[in-house]
């Protein structure tokens, strides 16, 4: 049995709304409220964040605080890689979703010759680049970084040379670029997509399951089809953004979107997917208690995390 390890990334420099860096501690408070000893049972390491940059100028308007994101990626990817090399299972608890690109880099650094599949459970496609981003927020870019995708044919912005240099460093981290292929990416619950992203998903025929399909076909069938789509991959990484859940549940997140899955569906989905022996890493992100009432989002998220952990330790 693999040794589980929490990797805490209390970073929010990639988000547009403040507060996601508090999400990890909010999940821990939910654990205490439930009387759970989960965070005592599993070893934990905290990645140094760059949140002090929030008090400085944002830098490029098309890749805000990208220098800090690169620094974070270097530390996070090293920790993920080392954990995997020691036959550990990284459970990444992150603030904003920009960190996922660092997690993917770490997996590939540990297994440079393996083919990695990604299951992205999220309301958003997160496949913008500095050339296409409408906001400049880097939590909308982790998959573009991992796919080494600039999408210049849909270019709206003109980032300066320094920004492009830093962007290229992010893409090439670990000397592997691209780190994943479009055919090895599966979206579940994605529903808030900009035209520039939509262009890429159509062009590359990316596999995506809508909320309606989850509700119509059931979690079991969706999970089976998602895993079947990635059957050629050696390894699978699951990234769970809490805004995949419906906005009626996910008030405590920076970018809530209507017509999402329920917390029960999210929990069942994560548990079903994690049963696959190819899954090597699981990440949860975007809990923001400053937007929440009575820590509800963190409580829902903790329940999902607890189910995932008990599945991994069975």
What does this structure look like?
With 314 residues, this protein is of the alpha/beta class. It has one domain: Ureohydrolase domain (Arginase, Chain A, 3-Layer(aba) Sandwich). Helices cover 39% and strands 14% of the residues. It is built from eleven helices and eight strands. An eight-stranded parallel beta sheet has the order 2-1-3-8-7-4-5-6, with helices on both faces. β5 (185-188), α7 and β6 (207-209) form a beta-alpha-beta unit. The protein is globular, with a radius of gyration of 18 Å. It starts with a strand and ends with a helix. The mean pLDDT is 97.
Features:
about 325 residues, alpha/beta, Arginase, Chain A, 8-stranded parallel β-sheet, 8 strands, about 40% helix, globular
Radius of gyration: 18 Å
Assign the CATH class: Alpha Beta
State which percent range the strand residues make up.
Answer: 5-15%
- Give the termini separation: 9 Å
CATH architecture: 3-Layer(aba) Sandwich
User: What would the principal axes of the Cα set say about the shape?
Assistant: globular
Note the quaternary state here.
single chain
Tally the structural domains: 1
Number of strands: 8
CATH homologous superfamily caption: Ureohydrolase domain
Enumerate the spans where pLDDT stays under 50 for 5 or more consecutive residues: none
Strand order of the largest sheet: 2-1-3-8-7-4-5-6
Mean pLDDT: 97
* Biggest sheet record: 8 strands, parallel
Tally of contiguous helical segments: 11
SSE string: EHHEHEHEHHEHEHHEHEH
Structural class, judged by helices and strands?
A: alpha/beta
CATH topology: Arginase, Chain A
Instruction: Give the helix proportion (percent range).
Output: 25-40%
């Amino acid at each position: 049995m693999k040794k589980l390890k929490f990797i805490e990334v209390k970073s929010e420099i990639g988000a547009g709304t403040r507060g996601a860096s508090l999400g990890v501690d909010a999940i821990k408070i939910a654990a205490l409220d439930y009387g759970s000893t989960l965070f005592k049972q599993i070893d934990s390491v905290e990645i140094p964040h760059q949140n002090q940059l929030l008090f400085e100028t944002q830098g490029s308007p098309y890749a805000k605080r990208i220098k800090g994101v690169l620094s974070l990626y270097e530390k996070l990817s090293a920790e993920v890689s080392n954990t995997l090399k020691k036959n550990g299972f990284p459970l990444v608890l992150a603030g904003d979703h920009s960190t996922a690109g660092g997690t993917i880099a770490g997996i590939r650094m540990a297994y440079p010759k393996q083919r990695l599949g990604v299951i992205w459970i999220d309301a958003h496609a997160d496949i913008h680049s500095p050339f296409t981003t409408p906001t400049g927020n880097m939590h909308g870019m982790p998959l573009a970084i991992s796919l080494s995708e600039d999408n210049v044919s849909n270019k709206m912005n003109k980032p300066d040379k320094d920004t492009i240099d830093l962007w290229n460093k992010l893409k090439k981290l670990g000397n592997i670029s691209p780190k994943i292929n479009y055919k090895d990416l599966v979206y579940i619950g994605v529903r808030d997509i900009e035209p520039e992203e939509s262009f890429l998903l159509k062009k590359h025929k990316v596999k995506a399951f809508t909320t309606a399909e989850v509700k119509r076909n059931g979690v079991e069938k969706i999970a089976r089809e998602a895993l079947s789509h990635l059957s050629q991959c050696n390894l699978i990484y699951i990234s769970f953004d809490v805004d995949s859940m419906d906005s009626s549940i996910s008030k405590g997140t920076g970018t809530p979107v209507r017509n999402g899955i329920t917390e029960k569906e999210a929990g069942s989905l994560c548990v079903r997917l994690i049963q696959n022996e190819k899954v090597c890493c699981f990440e949860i992100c975007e809990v923001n208690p400053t937007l929440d009432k009575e820590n509800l989002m963190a409580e829902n998220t903790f329940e999902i995390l607890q189910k995932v952990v008990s599945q991994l330790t069975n």
